[in-house]
Structure formats: structure tokens, C-alpha cells
Amino acid sequence: MKTQLLYLILLASPLSIWGQTPENSPDTLLQHNFEGLLDPADTMLLLPTGSDIHWVNYDQDNKKGLCVNNGITPKGWYWESDLGFINPNQANNDAFTSCSFLDSGNPQNRNWLITAPILIPDESYWLCWRSLSYYGPDFMDGYKVLASTGGNMPASFTDTLFKAAQTVDRLVVGSLDLNDYIFSSGYIHANGYTDEEYFFVDFEGQNPFYHGKMEPHCVSLSEYSGQTIYLAFLHDSYDDFQLQIDDILVSNQLSSATQQPLSQLEHFQVMPNPADAFCFIHWKAQENAPATCTIWDVNGRMVWEKSFSARTEGQYYLETAQFPSGMYWCQLRTAKELGMQKLIVR
Ligand SMILES: [Ca+2]
Ligand SMILES: [Ca+2]
Ligand SMILES: [Ca+2]
């Protein structure tokens, strides 16, 4: 019975809930931006049972965290302002957060954020998300993005789609030189702290540190075509600090005709953001190419689109007063490059 219900929901959702048509809107199968008035953790299960249809926030280690609130940090994932801002209290974004600075010895944190099940219709689908490790390189948090075709129990997540490195040891405490560290294998935040769009040097702490900002990632889900899968974000760091995940998206809008991953635009910005009556969309591409800018609402409906002739750099004045207040996705893409940003219209 459970399985039948699951498939009904999966089959019905792209059409009836989001009202999509393949011709003019993205097939967004799953989206979570951790925004709103209610704590997203309240709607999640605390334990996976094998074939759940809800998201799961599972604290497998059951160790006390010391990251916030004088040691009463939630043990699993928790809702928090975007820590990538200089002052997170002034952030206009919220994200899901996990703490690996744990009590008693040097235990491994094991916090699972497991999605609802997703039926991947064909090879054109991608998983995208954003993440930040708050405190690098001294206490850089690593994590894994995993997939399962056999239910949502931890042991079923046998496929690793992405692995972010964590700090394993340091030769010089507080150094900003990556050569003074030993990291586990995997991607080091902000491309090894070279891409200044995704970190800055923060002088507010005891020592200067690399303060992480939200960095987008995408992986293809093409090998799961025709299958129902669960995706999991496993924060499995030893003795680091805080990791955040945001804007989890499964959609087929990020693949080119050749199914090759698109590289990031050199620069892509929408400002002011939040926008009251207008915003400027500015981009810089690595190649001279025609571009298309598309805006979708949170339900995956395309609300605006414009094409631009070949250029390497462009700026466009967009009147946002034409859109109802709310959150949108703004995407700028060429044949080979892509930029995506959240746009808040007030
Ligand atoms: Ca935990
Ligand atoms: Ca968010
Ligand atoms: Ca570590």
C-alpha cells in the first residue's frame, strides 16, 4: 500500500502540484530552500524506516554539540540564518545547519538529511545545492552527497555523488596557508579557497579564518533514469565546526543538449536583491556567446525570459514590479556556462 501511494504521489506531483508543461517550464521534481515561517525540521521524520515519503533529519551519532547556545546545539540538522554573511543576524537567507564540534573526545558527527523519494524520469535531471563550511581551513567541515536506489536506511546509500573534504590535522594552528594542513580527500570549499566569491578572510575570531559563503554545486542524476531514488546529505566530519546546506533542487534545466555539465559563469549577479521595483542582472562569461535569462517562481513556473545576442558581458535592467512579491530563481545560461541566483521581490 505504501508503495502504491508513493508512486501515485510521484507521478502526480510534476503535473498537478506544480502545473508544469515540458515546453516552457523546468521539471522541478524536488526543491527545498529552507525559507518560511515554520522550522523545516518540524515537518521531517527523525528516523528513516526504509520507504518513507517524507524528508528525514536523522542524528545517527547522538552526540551533544557545542556550536551554539552554550552547548545546547541540536544534535541533528537545525534551522539557522545563512552563516556566510559577515553578520548572520542580518542575513536575508536561512539554511539547514549541522554541528561537528562535539562534546567528549573526538567523535565523528553523523547527521543525515535525507530527501523524500524522487522518480527520475529520464537522463536530463540534475541535483543542485549550495553549501558552506563556516570555519576554514582550521575546522573545515566535510560532507558527502549520497544516493540510494533501495530505500532510505543509511546502509542503502551506497552511491557517493559528491564528497567535500574536511580538516584532518594542522601543522600550524590558525594558519591560512593550506600547505599547513592535512585534509581528507574530496572537494575543498571555494575551490581550495581560491574562488573569492565563496569565502572571505574574517578577522573577528581568535585568529583570522576563511569564512565560507554559500557555494553552488550540481551533479548529474542521469544514471538513475527511470528509477526512484533517495538523496542524502551526510555531515560526517570529526571535530570541525558548522556546515550549512541550502537550495536543494532536482531539475532538468541544468543540462545542455550534449548532457555535459555547464561551467559557472565568470560573474553573475542580480542586484539589488531583495528588489523593490527593479534589479540589474549582470553577467560575465568566459566565451563570447548568446545567452538566455530565465526567471522561475518557487513553484517552478517560468515567469519571464529574454534572449541576448552573442557577448561576453551583459547587463540588463529588469522591472521586478511586474512580479508578485516572493522568491524567484534567476538563471543566465549560454551553451556552455550557467549562473543561477535566488531573487527576492518585495
Ligand atoms: Ca549529530
Ligand atoms: Ca535558504
Ligand atoms: Ca575534521
Distance between the termini: 44 Å
CATH A-level architecture of the largest domain: Sandwich
Residue share in helix? under 10%
Work out the number of β strands: 23
Characterise the protein shown here.
This protein has 346 residues and is mostly beta strands. It folds into 2 domains: 2-251, Jelly Rolls, CATH 2.60.120.200; 263-345, Immunoglobulin-like. The protein has 2 helices and 23 strands. The protein has helices spanning 2-17, 189-193, and strands at 30-32, 56-59, 78-81, 94-99, 111-114, 118-119, 126-133, 135-136, 143-148, 159-164, 167-170, 181-183, 199-202, 209-212, 215-220, 228-235, 242-251, 263-264, 267-271, 278-297, 302-319, 326-333, 337-345. Strands 1, 3, 4, 7, 15 and 17 form a 6-stranded antiparallel sheet that branches. Strands 2, 5, 6, 9, 10 and 16 form a 6-stranded antiparallel sheet that branches. A hairpin with a 6-residue loop joins β13 (199-202) and β14 (209-212). The longest helix is centred in the first third of the chain and has 16 residues, at 2-17. It is globular.
Notable features of this structure?
Immunoglobulin-like; mainly beta; 346 residues; six-stranded antiparallel sheet; 2 helices; disordered N terminus; Jelly Rolls; binds calcium ion; globular
